[in-house]
Amino acid sequence: GDRAATRIGLVVSNPPYALMPVDPQNRFGSVDAPVVDGSGRLVVYETPDSPGEIAVLDVDRGIVDRLYPELGGGRWRVSRDASTLVYPRGYSALAFLDLASKATVFRPYLPLGEIDRGGRRMTFLDYVPGADSDSELRQVFLYDGELLELRQVTTFDASSSMRGRSTPVISGDGATIAFGANRPFHVYAYDVASRELRDLAVLMSNAPFDRPSISDDGRWLAFVTRTAAQPDLFTGVVVDLTTGDFEPPIPALEGFRTVDTVITPDGRYEVISAAADLDPAVGNADGNTELFRYHRESGAFTQITDTVGQALVAYSPSIDDDGSAAAFFMQ
């Protein structure tokens, strides 16, 4: 597949954890949760055998910088420019760690969410303070780290619960939030500047809204769902958030289950995880689930991975700006 992608790919096997070539100096023999930055030159990941350690790998220089933040529950996020690490500090604060200066700023009573490219804004689901938490009714919030502003984005009532996998995502420029809500799922887009919330589309009954990703400019949203054309298969879809229109399905993926459809930050590509045979230059005769880079304008596929043996699926890719480098799980 793509040379850069192969170099950064095959980061972990999960489960069980196993060392891959991305970090030959790993003292503990395992890595987890790999995330590649927008440039494709840095990979941030956990070393599960050393609780609380986060490693930052400079791929070009082969240098690993090991950090020891006090992670709360092992969850964290890193901005796409790899400038900021965000993680819970205990159960009462969120920490924003500048990876260059190692300076940390703590913000109390914020849950961990999805952050924009520079780590300035974050979106998350939470209960409204003072509301009945037993109702399972959660709202979408926006936190602006520059303005120190916490804003409630939605005001759904009990008939439109934010249950399920409807975690909001925020565009790289921090200007657009997108998410799915209600039953059946509706696709929503929120303009941060104008504070306008738009209901763009509705999915068919019982269709999921899984693994959403959004382009940096906030125009394109990709996620996995079911469609009327393939009601029994998970299918990746792309929505134009300016119009609410769905992109036509990709003919080559007809009849195949899609594990992931990730829109690249520049919006030109999708990185798709599927058990299809789409790139004659590599081939997928064994039928494993592989990662493919799909050029949306030309319709061309490039197979990124070529797993063998018991490595039956490559999934949950973290990708750089144009999808030429990826860090992902293998199972």
Which terms would index this structure?
mainly beta; four-stranded antiparallel beta sheet; 1 helix; 331 residues; 2% helix; disordered N terminus; 26 strands
Q: What is the distance, rounded to the nearest whole angstrom, between the alpha carbons of the first and last residues?
A: 19 Å
Query: What are the low-pLDDT stretches, counting only 5+ consecutive residues below 50?
Result: 1-24
Sketch the topology as an H/E string, one letter per element.
Answer: HEEEEEEEEEEEEEEEEEEEEEEEEEE
Number of helical stretches of at least 4 residues: 1
Note down, in words, how this protein is organized.
With 331 residues, the chain is mostly beta strands. Helices cover 2% and strands 39% of the residues. The protein contains one helix and 26 strands. The strands form seven sheets. It has a four-stranded antiparallel β-sheet with strand order 2-3-4-5, with no helix packed on it. The protein has a four-stranded antiparallel β-sheet with strand order 6-7-8-9, with no helix packed on it. Strands 10-11-12-13 form a four-stranded antiparallel β-sheet, with no helix packed on it. Strand 16 (186-191) and strand 17 (196-202) form a beta hairpin. The longest helix is centred in the first third of the chain and has 6 residues, at 3-8. It is globular. The protein starts with a helix and ends with a strand.
Topology summary:
Layout: H1 3-8, E1 12-13, E2 32-36, E3 42-46, E4 54-58, E5 63-67, E6 77-78, E7 84-89, E8 93-98, E9 104-108, E10 114-115, E11 121-126, E12 139-144, E13 149-152, E14 169-170, E15 176-181, E16 186-191, E17 196-202, E18 210-214, E19 220-225, E20 235-240, E21 258-263, E22 269-274, E23 290-295, E24 301-303, E25 314-319, E26 326-330
Parallel strand pairs: 1-26
Antiparallel strand pairs: 2-3, 3-4, 4-5, 6-7, 7-8, 8-9, 10-11, 11-12, 12-13, 14-15, 15-16, 16-17, 18-19, 19-20, 21-22, 22-23, 23-24, 25-26
